[in-house]
């Protein structure tokens, strides 16, 4: 198990009442597999992903990375060394070029980075489908699909085994969506990564190795 | 792409914001720089004048405190004894010290120097033109401190001082007038008169000769030097004449003449005789003078000496006299202090707000760094680099323009000061020496310049101010929540 959630509870206080977004959620993920978490808007998908990526902490319960509590690893350290996060709205730095955006996490992580980081970044972008001429453009001069590819390259730049994505194709048309999903499949099946994608799209869920369904704060297997 | 590189990219990639920040810092920097320039200039004046005042100190009765005492209480006041003077003289702050006593004597055989006032002075009663100035410090402190300069012969030996040998150093002018040379002797009269209250006449009771051998000649150094174009020099002439007729001798000579004088006088006046009997130290009154190693020692010296002194005595530093002539300088210094304070506060607020506004625009970017696991301290570091690099440029530019501005403003203020007709000259008296400084001297030594201490002072204050102004924005960064920003 590369990632495991145990009895996660996440609620907010509404007057006297506790409103649970996640209730006693437990789930585990393996390397080399492409997972999806399916749920309607407002069902708590982003909340779950923020807990798995240590951008937020649960009210109770633990997240284990390689059997170790991420709280013990340290949230910041876990984020910079162990996980790559992809957002629905890309979240690239607009004043930087594509390749500069990919270089940012490489300078933050403590993982080993080859000395010619820039070459590695160009190669990574090329592999994801961004050629060199586009890699040197400022990211706001790229299309949505291209921007999300840059974001995927950025998530991979630190050589992590765990990729978390929150509705990564939500802003893309169907053709682009499929290209991104193909990349995720390739990363899981050819490169042995654990890819977890949150989505409200049935088509994507059907392509995953395993899909979960989130409803009323409860996570279940989805067939 | 680490935080340092990102900081520099933040400057070059957002030129508009960089220029706005630069303009803000430059304008406020001019205010700070101007104020610091004026501060430095006034500070220099103070140091300069105090340097000229020298590091002298003496012990004086606190005349204000003593004023209300009854006559009996007056008599209770202790003299400062030689032992105490020597004890204080041993302190590490003291370069050299002396104590002296003086007596005025007349002469039948030599003529005093009268300068330009020759023939203008009408004597009424006996003349006492010669000031016998006793010393204990054989090389003569007045020469070391360049009040006078030995131009012929030699100074005293310690032996002559200790034994009270009848040797003297007189001024060259006095020697010339009486055709005296080193090795010659001359005679002064210690004459005791009785004052008749009815007739107002003075009657000679007795007199004895004081025969002194000339061992050296001196020339005054400072008093008349710079005063050529000064029409109203009567006061200075008088000071000069007094000094030209001063005769340096060992303390013991003066003490012995004093003793003779009052003993003879006591024979005439019983009341006085009684008073003298009660106070056997009455002739042992010495004026002490301490010259310190450095003007900076003045305060420490004063602190250490004050507890040793008998009641009603104070340490008086030459420095203390500075305040009495610093008038226009003070108002300038005060004004610049306020300008500096206001400029610093304005800079902190305005720069802080400008930086905060820029950061709010960039919270997305900062949230991304945090989501990628960047340490908050490095995000803070990146912003500090972005602000401080621009600040250094802005401050460096205003370093020169602000200094220039301060020079112009000061010139204008000085002119305004000059035009006021109440242009006054004040002389400083210290102990029994007069220090030759005027308000004009103070104004003359004021100069706004680009010196090292100004540059360091301004960079220090300027950069510190900008640094403080980034505190508000930094709190903002530390509180950022990447989940809320990005998800
Ligand atoms: N602090 C909060 N206070 C009130 N409601 C919240 C808070 N945090 C999340 N929610 C609500 O929890 C629900 C789950 O949100 P989210 O995890 O973003 O769902 P999804 O990503 O599946 O659309 C939403 O209805 C959201 O409005
Ligand atoms: Mg969501």
Automatic annotation (TrEMBL), chain A:
Cleavable signal peptide: none
- Provide the alphabetized UniProt keywords: ATP-binding, Nucleotide-binding, Transport
What InterPro entries does this protein map onto? Answer: AAA+_ATPase (IPR003593), ABC_transporter-like_ATP-bd (IPR003439), ABC_transporter-like_CS (IPR017871), MacB-like_ATP-bd (IPR017911), P-loop_NTPase (IPR027417)
> Which SMART domains does the UniProt entry name for this protein?
AAA (SM00382)
Q: Does the record bear tRNA processing in its keywords? A: no
PROSITE patterns listed in its UniProt record: ABC_TRANSPORTER_1 (PS00211), ABC_TRANSPORTER_2 (PS50893)
- Matching PANTHER family: CELL DIVISION ATP-BINDING PROTEIN FTSE, LIPOPROTEIN-RELEASING SYSTEM ATP-BINDING PROTEIN LOLD
Q: What is this protein called?
A: ABC transport system ATP-binding protein
Q: Which organism is it from?
A: Oceanobacillus polygoni
TrEMBL record, chain B:
Fetch the InterPro entries from UniProt: ABC3_permease_C, MacB_PCD, Macrolide_Exporter_MacB
Which stretches make up the ABC3 transporter permease C-terminal domain?
339-482
User: What keywords sit in the KW lines?
Assistant: Cell membrane, Membrane, Transmembrane, Transmembrane helix
Q: Main location per UniProt?
A: membrane
Reply yes or no: does the keyword Cell division apply. no
This protein's GO CC annotations:
plasma membrane
User: What GO molecular-function term can you cite, just one?
Assistant: transmembrane transporter activity
Recorded superkingdom: Bacteria
A Pfam family that this protein carries is: MacB_PCD
Q: Which cell locations does it reside in? A: Cell membrane
The MacB-like periplasmic core domain, residue ranges:
149-305
Membrane association type? Multi-pass membrane protein
Q: Please list every transmembrane segment annotated in the UniProt record, as residue ranges.
A: 338-359, 379-400, 454-478
> What protein am I looking at?
ABC transport system permease protein
């Amino acid at each position: 198990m590369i990632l495991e959630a145990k009895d996660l509870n996440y609620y907010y206080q509404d007057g006297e009442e506790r409103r649970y977004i996640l209730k006693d959620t437990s789930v585990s993920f393996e390397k080399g597999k492409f997972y999806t978490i399916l749920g309607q808007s407002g069902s708590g998908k982003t909340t779950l992903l923020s807990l798995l990526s240590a951008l937020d902490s649960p009210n109770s319960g633990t997240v284990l990375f390689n059997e170790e509590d991420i709280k013990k690893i340290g949230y910041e350290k876990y984020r910079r060394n162990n996980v790559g996060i992809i957002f629905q709205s890309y979240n690239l730095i607009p004043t930087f070029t594509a390749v500069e955006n990919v270089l940012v996490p490489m300078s933050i992580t403590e993982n080993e980075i080859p000395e010619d980081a820039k070459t590695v970044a160009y190669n990574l972008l090329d592999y994801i489908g961004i050629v060199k001429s586009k890699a040197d453009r400022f990211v706001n001069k790229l299309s949505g699909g291209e921007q999300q590819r840059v974001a995927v390259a950025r998530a991979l730049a630190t050589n992590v085994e765990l990729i978390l994505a929150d509705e990564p194709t939500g802003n893309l048309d169907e053709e682009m969506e499929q290209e991104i999903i193909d990349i995720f499949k390739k990363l899981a099946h050819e490169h042995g990564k654990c890819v977890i994608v949150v989505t409200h799209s049935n088509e994507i869920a059907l392509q995953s190795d395993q899909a979960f369904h989130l409803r009323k704060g409860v996570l279940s297997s989805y067939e | 792409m680490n935080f340092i590189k990102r900081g520099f990219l933040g400057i070059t990639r957002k030129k508009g914001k960089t220029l706005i920040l630069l303009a803000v810092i430059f304008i406020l920097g001019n205010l700070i720089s101007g104020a610091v320039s004026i501060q430095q200039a006034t500070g220099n004046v103070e140091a300069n004048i105090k340097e000229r005042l020298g590091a002298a100190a003496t012990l004086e009765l606190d005349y204000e405190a003593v004023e209300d005492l009854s006559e009996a209480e007056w008599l209770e006041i202790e003299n400062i004894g030689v032992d105490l003077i020597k004890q204080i003289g041993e302190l590490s702050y003291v370069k050299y010290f002396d104590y002296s006593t003086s007596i005025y004597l007349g002469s039948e055989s030599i003529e005093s120097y009268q300068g330009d006032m020759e023939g203008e002075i009408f004597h009424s009663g006996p003349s006492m033109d010669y000031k016998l100035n006793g010393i204990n410090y054989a090389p003569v402190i007045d020469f070391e401190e360049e009040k006078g300069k030995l131009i012929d012969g030699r100074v005293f030996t310690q032996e002559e001082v200790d034994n009270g040998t009848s040797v003297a150093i007189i001024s060259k002018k006095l020697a010339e007038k009486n055709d005296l040379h080193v090795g010659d002797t001359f005679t002064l009269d210690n004459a005791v008169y009785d004052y008749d209250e009815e007739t107002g006449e003075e009657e000679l009771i007795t007199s004895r000769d004081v025969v002194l051998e000339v061992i050296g000649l001196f020339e005054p150094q400072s008093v008349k030097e710079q005063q050529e174009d000064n029409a109203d020099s009567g006061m200075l002439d008088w000071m000069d004449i007094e000094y030209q007729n001063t005769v340096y001798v060992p303390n013991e000579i003066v003490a012995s003449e004093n003793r003779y004088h009052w003993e003879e006088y006591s024979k005439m006046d019983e009341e006085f005789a009684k008073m003298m009997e009660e106070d056997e130290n009455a002739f042992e009154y010495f004026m002490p003078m301490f010259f310190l190693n450095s003007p900076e020692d003045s305060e420490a010296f004063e602190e250490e000496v004050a507890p040793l002194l008998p009641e009603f005595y104070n340490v008086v530093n030459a420095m203390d006299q500075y305040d009495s002539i610093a008038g226009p300088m003070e108002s300038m210094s005060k004004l610049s202090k306020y300008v500096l304070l206001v400029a610093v506060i304005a800079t902190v607020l305005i720069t802080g707000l400008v930086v905060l506004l820029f950061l709010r625009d960039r919270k997305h970017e900062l949230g991304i760094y945090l989501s990628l696991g960047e340490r908050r301290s490095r995000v803070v570091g990146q912003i500090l680099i972005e602000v401080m690099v621009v600040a250094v440029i802005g401050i460096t530019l205003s370093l020169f323009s602000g200094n220039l501005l301060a020079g112009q403003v000061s010139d204008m203020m000085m002119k305004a000061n000059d035009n006021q007709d109440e242009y006054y000259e004040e002389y400083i008296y210290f102990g029994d020496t007069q220090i030759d400084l005027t308000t004009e001297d103070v104004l003359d030594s004021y100069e706004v310049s680009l010196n090292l201490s100004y540059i360091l002072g301004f960079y220090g204050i300027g950069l510190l101010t900008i640094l403080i102004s980034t505190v508000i924005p930094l709190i903002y960064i530390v509180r950022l929540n990447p989940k809320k920003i990005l998800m």
